[in-house]
Amino acid sequence: MKRSSWQRLRSCIHALQTLTLVVLALWVSIAAPGCSLFQAKMPMGSSSQLTQTVAPTATSSQRFDGVTVNVITHDAAIHTGVERHIAGFAALTGATVKLTGVPVKNFYQILQANWSGSASKYDSAVILPQWLIDFVNAGFLEDLTARVKADAALQWNDIAPIFRNVSATYQGHTYSIPLDGDFHMVYYRSDLLKQAGLAPPQTWDDYLAIAKRFHGKDLNGDGEADYGSCLSKRPHENIASMLISIAAPFLQAKGTEQGAFFDPATMKPLVNNSAFGRALEIYKQTMAYGVPQDANLGGVKARTLFITGRCALTMDWGDVGPLAGDRSVSQVTDKVGAVMTPGTMQILDRQTGKLAACNKFVCPYAIDGVNHAPYAANIGWTGVVHAKAASRVKDAAYAFLSYISQPAQSNVDVTIGETGFNPYRISQFQDVAPWLKAEMSLAAANNYLGAIGISLSSPNMVLNLSIPHSQQYLLETLDAAVAAFLVGKLTKTEAMQQVEQGWQHITNEVGREAQKAAYRSSLGLPS
């Protein structure tokens, strides 16, 4: 990697942290009486003075009558978020958008197979950003750099740096339009913790203790026993990202560039050691405080259980915040708090493979002795255009993605839990009006956005695994081993060995030096 590219990525991360420190500082002030992230008396129809003026839509002067765009995405919440804009875009431009949803476990393979053929069915897709490298290298994606630069209505610089410069950009070119911002956070029942005199979990040991405390008790007043923890564990869904969020603070302590997946000097996987083993133990231990047949609990069901008051704790993306405030579906409105994912007071000694106590030298970013490493799980769904689509179809596909991402649409989308879209624009942190209009209370908005801000501003944030074949490393190899471990088909040692051997095989097949260079580049290190 050229030094200029290295410096660009590092300056990008620094810019993000500087930006979100403002949010962090304001969030911390909530503890002071009368202080909040937003002004309590702000009129519902107005916006913060810091908010950018929404420009006319980029598509307002473009017509695509007779043009059909075929779009594919995940068949869950993201599908809903995309679908809700089809009618508006059609009315504005005359274009027809046909949307297909597929299970996430098959999505990558379906898209790869379709775009590898001579007759491609899909003109555009809303994908996970870790797939970007594979699809760019295969020649599947249209370079959107020039279009983005010419698109004033997109308000590109309003998109936070990590999303526009990390998840949308590869080798200095823009290939996607961010539509979502994803970080894991832990959500807790603030009413229950307050009644019990407990603080939100700061470590994973805290999380387990709170889960144990409330498991088996009636948490929503329906007379039935409820659950201490609801974490997604169903195979082919969120297993990999859930485990990584638990493992991250045990594996990385010296900042983002240290990396949590491999040793950046050797590409040795960091998956067969005491730290990774402890994360596996914690993940499995949560099953003692979960639903019956917890190993088959999917993400949507876990989310539903939490917002209907049946769980004391969960870990999830940002969807839970708006859903908890939606009185039409939630039984826990104004009873939910959000915090950065828990940390640990121990860290992996990479020389011995054992856990060692944190101190100011080995855990320089620890807070009160606790090392946190919030994981940018998926970073956020992002829209791409197929390079082989017809020229006019490319224009319409880009215009549709731009239309969804523009503040006029997206700043409302992120306040609606069922869209699957979470905050990723600066204005979404600065403008209170959409959050209040969505009936989220001022206190809930402050807490929710503050927790995201703290995660974004962490110098020890763990980035997505953004190297070729990340799908094989995480959603195939890691997912399979962890799923087998949770149901007792593999021991902890066997699971770690299986992941390590699988990752080593992928690395060797692709090319160790090439993968090492890609991994170092993703961390902002010189190759």
Brief overview, please?
This protein has 527 residues and is of the alpha/beta class. The chain has 21 helices and 13 strands. Helices cover 43% and strands 11% of the residues.
Sheet/helix structural class = alpha/beta
Helix tally equals 21
Major sheet: order of its strands?
2-1-3-13-6
DSSP strand count: 13
The largest β sheet comes out as: 5 strands, mixed
What does this protein structure show overall?
The protein is α/β, with parallel strands linked by helices and about 525 residues long. Helix content is about 45%, strand content about 10%. The strands form 4 sheets. Strands 2-1-3-13-6 form a 5-stranded mixed β-sheet, sandwiched between helices. Strands 8-9-7-10 form a 4-stranded mixed β-sheet, sandwiched between helices. The chain has a two-stranded antiparallel ribbon with strand order 4-5. The longest helix is centred in the N-terminal third of the chain and has 26 residues, at about 5-30.
Describe how the helices and strands are arranged.
Blueprint: H1 3-28, E1 68-74, H2 77-83, H3 86-93, E2 96-102, H4 104-116, E3 124-127, H5 132-137, H6 145-150, H7 161-167, E4 169-170, E5 173-174, E6 177-178, E7 185-189, H8 190-196, H9 204-214, E8 227-230, H10 239-251, H11 274-285, H12 299-307, E9 311-316, H13 320-325, E10 336-340, E11 346-349, E12 354-357, E13 382-385, H14 391-405, H15 407-413, H16 427-430, H17 433-437, H18 442-456, H19 470-486, H20 492-510, H21 512-522
Parallel strand pairs: 1-2, 1-3, 8-9
Antiparallel strand pairs: 3-13, 4-5, 6-13, 7-9, 7-10, 11-12
Helix pairs in contact: 1-7, 1-18, 10-11, 10-19, 19-20
